[in-house]
Amino acid sequence: MKLVIGVIKPFKLEDVKEALEAVGVQGMTVTDARGFGRQRGHTEIYRGAEYQVDFTPKIRVEVLAEDDHVEEIVKAFLTSARTQAIGDGKVWVLPVDEVTRIRTGERGHDAL
Amino acid sequence: MKLVIGVIKPFKLEDVKEALEAVGVQGMTVTDARGFGRQRGHTEIYRGAEYQVDFTPKIRVEVLAEDDHVEEIVKAFLTSARTQAIGDGKVWVLPVDEVTRIRTGERGHDAL
Amino acid sequence: MKLVIGVIKPFKLEDVKEALEAVGVQGMTVTDARGFGRQRGHTEIYRGAEYQVDFTPKIRVEVLAEDDHVEEIVKAFLTSARTQAIGDGKVWVLPVDEVTRIRTGERGHDAL
Amino acid sequence: MDTGDTAFVLVSAALVMFMTPGLALFYGGMVRAKNVLGTLMQSVFALGLVSVLWVLIGYTLAFGPDKGGLIGGLDFLGLRGVGADPNPDLAGTIPHTTFALFQMMFAVITPALITGAFAERMKFSAYALFTAVWLLLVYAPVAHWVWAPGGWIREMGALDFAGGTVVHINAGVAALAAAVIIGRRRGFGKQAVVPHNLTMTLLGTGILWFGWFGFNAGSALGANGLASSAFLATHLGAAAGACGWALYEATRERRPTTLGVASGAVAGLVAITPAAGFVSPLPAIAIGLCAGIVCAVAVRLKFRFGLDDSLDVVGVHLAGGIVGALLTGVFADLAVNGAGADGLLNGGGAALLGKQVVAVGATFAFSLAVSAAILKIVDLTVGLRVSSEEEASGLDLSQHAEVGYAFSESGGAIEREPERDVPAPSPVAAVPVPSDAR
Amino acid sequence: MDTGDTAFVLVSAALVMFMTPGLALFYGGMVRAKNVLGTLMQSVFALGLVSVLWVLIGYTLAFGPDKGGLIGGLDFLGLRGVGADPNPDLAGTIPHTTFALFQMMFAVITPALITGAFAERMKFSAYALFTAVWLLLVYAPVAHWVWAPGGWIREMGALDFAGGTVVHINAGVAALAAAVIIGRRRGFGKQAVVPHNLTMTLLGTGILWFGWFGFNAGSALGANGLASSAFLATHLGAAAGACGWALYEATRERRPTTLGVASGAVAGLVAITPAAGFVSPLPAIAIGLCAGIVCAVAVRLKFRFGLDDSLDVVGVHLAGGIVGALLTGVFADLAVNGAGADGLLNGGGAALLGKQVVAVGATFAFSLAVSAAILKIVDLTVGLRVSSEEEASGLDLSQHAEVGYAFSESGGAIEREPERDVPAPSPVAAVPVPSDAR
Amino acid sequence: MDTGDTAFVLVSAALVMFMTPGLALFYGGMVRAKNVLGTLMQSVFALGLVSVLWVLIGYTLAFGPDKGGLIGGLDFLGLRGVGADPNPDLAGTIPHTTFALFQMMFAVITPALITGAFAERMKFSAYALFTAVWLLLVYAPVAHWVWAPGGWIREMGALDFAGGTVVHINAGVAALAAAVIIGRRRGFGKQAVVPHNLTMTLLGTGILWFGWFGFNAGSALGANGLASSAFLATHLGAAAGACGWALYEATRERRPTTLGVASGAVAGLVAITPAAGFVSPLPAIAIGLCAGIVCAVAVRLKFRFGLDDSLDVVGVHLAGGIVGALLTGVFADLAVNGAGADGLLNGGGAALLGKQVVAVGATFAFSLAVSAAILKIVDLTVGLRVSSEEEASGLDLSQHAEVGYAFSESGGAIEREPERDVPAPSPVAAVPVPSDAR
Ligand SMILES: Nc1ncnc2c1ncn2[C@@H]1O[C@H](COP(=O)(O)OP(=O)(O)O)[C@@H](O)[C@H]1O
Ligand SMILES: Nc1ncnc2c1ncn2[C@@H]1O[C@H](COP(=O)(O)OP(=O)(O)O)[C@@H](O)[C@H]1O
Ligand SMILES: Nc1ncnc2c1ncn2[C@@H]1O[C@H](COP(=O)(O)OP(=O)(O)O)[C@@H](O)[C@H]1O
């Protein structure tokens, strides 16, 4: 079992969701995040006081998946979240020991 | 050392917190999240324009724990977060290389 | 490849960001979180109804890094996020199978 | 007809109208975010529904020629015969229409006050039906008794300058009935239910305070010394109420709260309403201070009684209304208003106080009985309460298919336009629509 | 000069001024959070820019001595000769300055209404330039035609009590031109664009409704029976409009929405504006109800036509304005206002209705042509639209370098003071500044 | 007594009262979310505290029979003898109570203005004590000097139509003292401190602008030509101020900001306050424009001087107040107000300007000395400043045990009711309370 985590641009969430559904993903958990990286931030000015904000809004998508499903899911992220512009984000994969569905107590494969 | 992550329904947070404390958990980190899965979303209408929102509010709970404590913690999630209704969420366990307490620099067990 | 996660006090974010940049970190993803632990919460009163809130605002910082870079990064967290007061937070390290940059599809080292 | 008086009452009517959006915000800030729109609607929609009903039938029931001291005749149905000429029995120096529309604003806010008691759980349809029926069966008669020439309470000599009994006690009693009949919210008394936006509640308080000058001073129906002293008393009632509640909290709970100061100001305004045109400044301060403290205690009782009067309509409007009605019998002063009477402390003896008690008692009994009956009938017909699932997801989604706030713009929604797949006839639409995706 | 009339018109002017911040909130709540400040600015800045231009030149173009029925002469340039004495041709019982400033508030809100059509994508500079030119080339002439002595539409005998053609149809037509010329927002029709804060929109609605009493009743230019009946009609138009829109939604989409009730109230207010001083209560209800339903249908057409009139200025102000102008020709009643006329249903035949049609048609044609021309020129000079990147990041950051909300205080920013590295001259600054870090 | 004048001044008083909630929002939006309630409270609570003190003692100190040009006698203690009859020395055509309550609203907002200087770090108790003492020792005397018959500044012939010295310079100087004495916020000049809700600040600006018509035009104490020209000047001052500040930003920082336009409008209103009843429209525009630019520069100096005047009370109210007081001496015009004087540009020579300088200097010196003394004493007694931990967690939690916003309803809290474990006596409570948990 793996956990695929993708950090994407907010307005891409809908496309990513559709792409993931297309490759058979039946669930995901997303959180609002802010990212720092090559992509530059912006400046804010209040009564002449100037602030440099280095973080840009991102969305963090978590998908639990079978090992053999991972490659497909990563590809789905790459194609659906890409805008060719700096700041498109990253996808990374973590190993998972086990997964349980709270409602039924099912474990592993059945929990997804 | 393991990281137990549970995605639950928001109004269950208090019960889950109490259940985790009951099994000896002394700390946790929670974030607001939105989930997509079997549980259906809802419809919004603004001046006749209709939107289907597939994500439902969830809370994501992270608990660092000793390996031999994990099973108990997962059980606590199952019992305290369950409503029998679709959308109760998942609990998954990730391996952790090491943990450090920022305040003291203590590592491993002592960091919890 | 590793994922270093630090939970810190919100007003420390700027210092932590600078410390991480100083040790060569080029990117990170942060999320607002609430933490429960030794640090006590606070009381709220509304028309005489009293509530005990056990969670305190935190920020969760995620940094993907090469294995040999991890120790330095953890140290940067310890020095920059420390206030000596209870509630400074934790830093933990997770193993990562692989990382991909969405924009270019680059993997591993080049994806950072 | 006097232009100064007309200008003042017209502006006062505008101020009273503004109180209803103010009330919407005052209440809206106290509920959870998922119910904010549903709560705002229960006040704002009354501006629509009640205004129309008032013109069609409500006004004539309240202020039409008296029938046995109990109700008005139908002469003013649809405002027939209500025109630019003053009606000397009601207000001699302003157009009759001005009096009618000023009264309309009172009729609008009164049922809106009740909604705080059943916040976060009533069906919108049930709310609308209840409001319409209650206006005609409860508000109109009581308004007639107290304010219309020939109304039995008015004839008896009880004093209610701007609506202590008609508006506040009346609404407060209906709220009591509603809270008991609809039952408690899920998790009441166990789960934390925290106001989602106290800045909204504070803004609402400011608007209510501002509008209340129209409510009370406008009730002098002219721009004169009486209006001025009612204005002054109103402001002092609010000010002292805020101080009273804050004082109670500072001494009993170590910290004065924002919600406490806001609640105290409203409690003071409620209590000064019946007295505004009959008392001098210092008594006005006493009434406000007293109301602030009494109501601060009253709202703390609901948990003891397990009564989920969600936004404390009983604790503020019923308790505050009674305090005001009775203290009017204590502090009323003929020197302030020759059309009034002398209260207990001004050599008038207990006579006035006795009449005030009767007025309060009668309003209480009548409103409780009829309000409860209406609620029961509405429950049996359309049903009062949303389903448990709807309550959990909130009124905004379940009753109105909307959300109050969408700060984070993380898509998560695609449009399902009925017209979506229809080939667009216009050349403009022929142009492919660029999407954020590219 | 009458103090009552003066008091009423001065207060009315204040109320109309307050409508512009109200409109800012009404619009601001409907856009996405990243554009809220840019949207508020497009209304609020008009209070600054238009007011100054109005005093310098706008007023004299609109109300200066008539030149051929088309425009005013320059006698009142910079308000020269506009003083404390009444101008009998314009308003006989109030100072001339009072009339001029009352009219100024109308001039401010009219261009602000247009901004809803190009919300979330126009450059601030383009907005400012367009507003200034439109005020002088479109608003001032039309105001002269309809309201100034000698203005051809006024002389023709068409009725517009408070601005149905001058304000609402005029702005609605300009909005139509703007929406077509600037083009659709990124992702329009595909991506979800949800109002970010409907509580703000509801507050704005409350303020608009409140201020509209000054707009319509104040247009009687005195505190009298006419003002009173206009006040009553205004309130009933809004109330019935809210009911009408809610009714449409309840029957067609199962659920009345908060935004629907707010929109219906505004639609009703728009439609009653030209009629307010000419109709009795029941027709006022009919006009509001009709406007609520018609506009509810109208806003649903924009997707079919692929027209991104973002905040429905066309659907509400143009559609509602036309409904009101025409129904004035149907319901106008000499018994209500001797200076008016009898409409279709009051034995006046189709005469008045015909004149109303001419007034609407002329305003429509003139405003469409000139507004479009101005927009094209602004586009060719400063450019109407922000870049695609600026649109994605939002107007607040790109046009004003600000964000509307910063609820979570997670640093994420360090100060770059120009003075930052300059050795501070004052001893105070010499003291090392403690930082949250320690 | 004139009903039109009375109507106008009563409504003006209501408008001025509304300014204080407006100020609360204007300030509240500029602080961080954790301090929003504490900031709102520091304005709103003044409505309670100051109003009561004003009636008891403040009014008589300010407007009681003159004692040596310095202070009023105690004849009006508790408003004794202040009734429905006009007091010809103060205002001949309105009830004396009307004048007293109109003045009360000025007394309320002045100390509230000061709170912007020590925002986000003062104890609530210290604020309350300071406000009470400052009202009686600083505000009341200065009001007497400038406005009361016999007051030395009034007798000298300096002009202050609506409170440039009494309200704005007075508060601005006290703010300067407060900012220096309480010291800077943690992290000032290093850490980013971003306004948490500029939409709230913009709403506050709209309310302030709206209420300011009552403040300035109401100061004519009647509905007449003077009120009308003061109304016009007020609006133009605000409008030009907004344009001036925006112009400065557009030229110096490439982008006009929402906060800049809001600040400019307020700066213009501050500067026009003393001049409103003495200048014609074009000078009013000049004063506003000038104030907008001067204040835009002034607020940028605080970082250089390391002065943490948190919400720029000095930069806006002191700087703007001085600009207005001096330009009154330049633009004042007997043709506008016979009770005024001719300024530098109207052939009056430097005489008036000289008096204005004296008035400003005297107010500055007196207010600085006494305000500083009061602050020091409060610091030594209850202590001015919250602890460093309380400052970090915010005023809302530490001073009021509340939070401003709770958008995400993630429980995280359980109720600790004192009544919790008490067996509930009522049958209703006997019914087990359903909880969201099941
Ligand atoms: N080392 C990292 N660890 C965690 N998240 C990162 C890291 N580097 C980048 N990110 C995330 O990816 C986002 C995009 O990265 P950025 O360098 O700006 O553009 P790109 O991914 O196109 O190179 C960042 O905003 C951040 O959220
Ligand atoms: N594959 C997945 N990866 C990550 N999170 C998931 C996944 N599937 C479900 N979830 C999370 O669990 C929540 C509940 O899942 P859902 O299928 O709706 O109900 P249930 O868990 O009862 O089957 C979802 O809202 C989502 O937050
Ligand atoms: N077992 C845990 N699992 C996950 N997060 C934890 C755990 N214990 C503590 N935390 C996080 O660390 C924060 C600080 O912990 P706390 O015990 O309060 O202080 P300290 O880290 O100084 O001992 C908590 O608020 C929480 O966010």
Question: If you had to describe this structure to a student in words, what would you say it looks like?
Answer:
- The complex is a heterohexamer, with three copies of chain A (112 residues) and three copies of chain D (438 residues).
- Chain A is an alpha+beta fold.
- In chain A, a hairpin with a 2-residue loop joins strand 3 and strand 4.
- With 438 residues, chain D is mostly helical.
- The longest helix of chain D has 31 residues.
- The C terminus of chain D is likely disordered.
- Classes of the chains: A alpha+beta (112), D mainly alpha (438).
- Chains C and D meet through strand 3 of C and helix 9 of D.
- The structure holds adenosine-5'-diphosphate (3 copies).
- One adenosine-5'-diphosphate (ADP) sits at the interface of chains C and B.
- One adenosine-5'-diphosphate sits at the interface of chains C and B.
Radius of gyration of chain A: 17 Å
The biggest sheet of chain D amounts to: 2 strands, antiparallel
Helix vs. strand class of chain A:
alpha+beta
Number of strands of chain A: 7
Number of helices of chain A: 2
Instruction: Specify the overall morphology of chain D.
Output: globular
Would you list the SSEs of chain A in sequence order as H and E?
A: EHEEEEHEE
Order of helices and strands of chain D: HHEEHHHHHHHHHHHHEH
Which oligomeric form is depicted?
Answer: heterohexamer
Short characterization:
The complex is a heterohexamer, with three copies of chain A (112 residues) and three copies of chain D (438 residues). Chain A has 112 residues and is an alpha+beta fold.
Keywords for this structure?
heterohexamer; A: 112 residues; alpha+beta; four-stranded antiparallel beta sheet; two-stranded antiparallel ribbon; 2 helices; 7 strands; elongated; D: 438 residues; mainly alpha; two-stranded antiparallel sheet; 15 helices; 3 strands; disordered C terminus; binds adenosine-5'-diphosphate
